[in-house]
Amino acid sequence: MAAGAMTPSATDIARAVSVLKGGGLVAFPTETVYGLGADALNPAAIRKVFAVKGRPADHPLIVHIGSSTKLEDWALKVPEAAERLARRFWPGPLTLVLKRHPRISLEITGGQETVAIRIPAHPAALMLLDAFGSGIAAPSANRFGKVSPTTAAHVRADLGMEVDFVLDGGPCAVGIESTIVDLSSDVPIILRPGGIAATDIERELGSPVKTGNEKSQVRAPGMLESHYAPRARIVIAGRGKAQEVAEAHLLQGQRVCAWLGAGPEPVPESVVLLPVEKSPEGRARTLYSWLREVDVQGFDVAVVTLPLDSGLDAAVRDRLCRAAGGR
Ligand code: TXA
Ligand code: MG
């Protein structure tokens, strides 16, 4: 079991299942972030997810399935590449976009003919999916555009009374969302960098994979420029420029902290340095917690330098750029 992951009691699982069966919403842990789950085959419950999240209807949800579920029950066509990636990385932080099975409503897919599917690698999520015996549609359990939750407390702080039940599984071990691979056309495309590195996917497929959604017909709201954002401003500084950028904000009377992902460099004395984990995995796991902490501690600005674009740091960079974007 992943460090920090908690096994829920049989009572908690039973309660979560009965909420889902009754058309309610259950926030549940995955290895990436907490999801806001609803019965994937109940359109009214799906509409509730969009309402609580404040998410536009054309932004599709991921269908989570259990280890014993057949992919063919949820996707119309399962290409060999999908079978390969599923065999290698599921349960795990990988989402496959495939042709939609007719039983999946257009509400889930945002009106598209494709559906996003994954088997999460968290003991509590797998217990829940097994006990529920069907698919659970879930976006990340945060308000639209805000920072994703990696603990049950984050979910309660964001969505509080609007979730019928929060299944607590401890802090998420990966801490950043799944990698989304579009396999609905002939050319595989990574739509969102995430918990599985692009190089690992390429190695498994035996060929290079395109990144970005410019070649794809599908939309992914995680691709919006402004997303994953705290209230404070995230300002990205070039390497060696943190001091200069921080000073400019201090001069305006702002409270400034810094997260130096590119490595240590000098900053003004009044700037609070946020700790940076040594490994890409550590940086991914702690990213959303420190983005939240920036608001909790009342900073106006976080000056950020970006880690190198490799492994899980690609996803960390992506989220930081989006947290900084559009402002
Ligand atoms: O790790 C994760 O993926 C987490 C956990 C809870 O599983 N979920 C998550 O969900 O990040 P959400 O809704 O925050 O992001 C789902 C992403 C969105 O960017 C959405 O556009 C994309 O998946 N997506 C869903 N269905 C799609 C489809 N049919 N085609 C392309 N992208 C799709
Ligand atoms: Mg999200």
Topology:
Blueprint: H1 10-21, E1 26-28, E2 35-39, H2 43-53, E3 62-64, H3 80-89, E4 94-99, H4 106-109, E5 114-118, H5 123-132, E6 136-138, H6 152-159, E7 165-166, E8 179-182, E9 189-192, H7 198-205, E10 210-211, E11 233-236, H8 242-251, E12 256-260, E13 272-273, H9 280-296, E14 301-305, H10 313-324
Parallel strand pairs: 1-7, 3-5, 4-8, 9-10, 11-14, 12-13, 12-14
Antiparallel strand pairs: 1-2, 2-6, 3-6, 4-5, 8-9
Helix pairs in contact: 1-5
The structure holds threonylcarbamoyladenylate and magnesium ion (MG).
Magnesium ion binds next to loops.
Task: Walk me through the structure.
The chain is an alpha/beta fold. It has 10 helices and 14 strands. About 2% of the residues have low confidence. The site of threonylcarbamoyladenylate has 29 residues, from strand 4, strand 5 and strand 9. Magnesium ion binds next to loops.
Task: Summarize the structure in short.
With 327 residues, the chain is of the alpha/beta class. It has 10 helices and 14 strands.
Query: Radius of gyration in whole Å, from Cα?
Result: 20 Å
* Oligomeric state as shown: single chain
**Number of helical elements:** 10
Helix content estimate: 25-40%
Give the biggest beta sheet.
10 strands, mixed
What is the N-to-C order of secondary-structure elements (H for helix, E for strand)?
Answer: HEEHEHEHEHEHEEEHEEHEEHEH
Sequence stretches where pLDDT stays below 50 over 5 or more residues:
214-218
Spatial order of the strands forming the largest sheet:
7-1-2-6-3-5-4-8-9-10
- Structural class per helix/strand content? alpha/beta
Identify the bound ligands. threonylcarbamoyladenylate, magnesium ion
Looking at the structure, what is the overall shape?
globular
Number of strands: 14
Arithmetic mean pLDDT: 93
CA-to-CA gap between the ends?
40 Å
Report the β-strand fraction as a percent range: 15-25%
